[in-house]
Amino acid sequence: MLDEIDRGLIHALHLDGRAPFSRIGVVLGVSTQTVARRYQRLRSEEGLRVVGLPDPGRAGLTQWIVRLTAQPATARTLARSLAKRPDTSWVKLTSGGTEIVAIAQTPTDSPSAMLLHDIPRTATVTAVSAHLMLHTYLGGPTAWHGRLAALTEEQQEALRGKETAVDQGPLTPADHALIDVLRHDGRMSVTQLAVATGLAPSTVTRRLDDLRASGALFFDVEINAALYGVTTQAFLWMAIAPADLDEVATTLATHEELAVVAATTGPTNLIAQALCPDPAALHHYLTRRLGAQRAIRTLHTAPVLEIVKAVGPLPA
Predict the structure, then answer these.
(1) What does the pLDDT look like over 79-92, one tens digit per residue?
(2) What whole-number distance in Å separates Cα of residue 127 and Cα of residue 70?
(3) Distances in Å between the alpha carbon of 43 and those of 37, 46, 92, 240?
(4) What is the pLDDT, as a whole number, of residue 160?
(5) Which residues contact 100 (CB under 8 A, 6 or more apart)?
(6) CA 74 to chain CA centroid, nearest Å
(7) Cβ(2)–Cβ(10) under 8 Å?
(8) Is the distance from CB of 128 to CB of 64 less than 8 angstroms?
(9) N or C of the chain: less Cβ packing under 10 Å?
């Protein structure tokens, strides 16, 4: 389990993935060395990673939630194969290990080879469905509420700093190259980023500032939810009348049990991911808090058995 300093550090990285350890130390009331030591330990032992990601809309990307049903003997192998693709994230095994759920990003102006060719030709796949993500109410630059309770409002303000809006045109090839490197490690130094991209350090600094200020680039944090006492995760597939969809989704986005809430196409038009301490807590959430939303017509619950890939690329 995480202690107060660990939780504060992770919360700080959610607010500013590239915040200097010295600034985080001041906010937490500990030394720079302590923050650096905790970060390295969490990174090496617990899989902590800061990743830089593009805003899908500004990067010309469309997101799909892909559900595949596969034969039990081959589902894990197929999931790992999907996880190696650069156009996938959050690849998970669910429903007893026979269903794979993944997010696929495709260019807005052209279909994905995975959606139209690769998956249907895989003999071990017995069913495929793809749901276009229409609107994200919780997820992306926002995060599961369970990670964001360590710092006071005053501490959060000290980390956020001043926001200055910048008009950002279409991403350039250099921007894409910079973001591709940040996907692997969002805390790489300017010097390291310059070497990896072939850009001048001054250009890297300027583009980082502009991309972040415009919202075209944001940072997410990967960490095992079990460190927060989460042992039970599940996808919730819901069907809601269109007139009630926005109100219900906005309400669910405030629930501390949920990490993702998004409107989609398909027979179910709202998906959520629940993170709970145990099955009893999930049952309580489904029957009490979620059950109070009378506009939910149907609900299908799929337990998550394994996270094969999180938001960033698999380690080399």
Answers:
(1) 999 999 988 999 99
(2) 7
(3) 10, 6, 22, 40
(4) 84
(5) 66, 67, 68, 69, 70, 75, 78, 79, 82, 91, 92, 93, 94
(6) 26
(7) yes
(8) no
(9) C
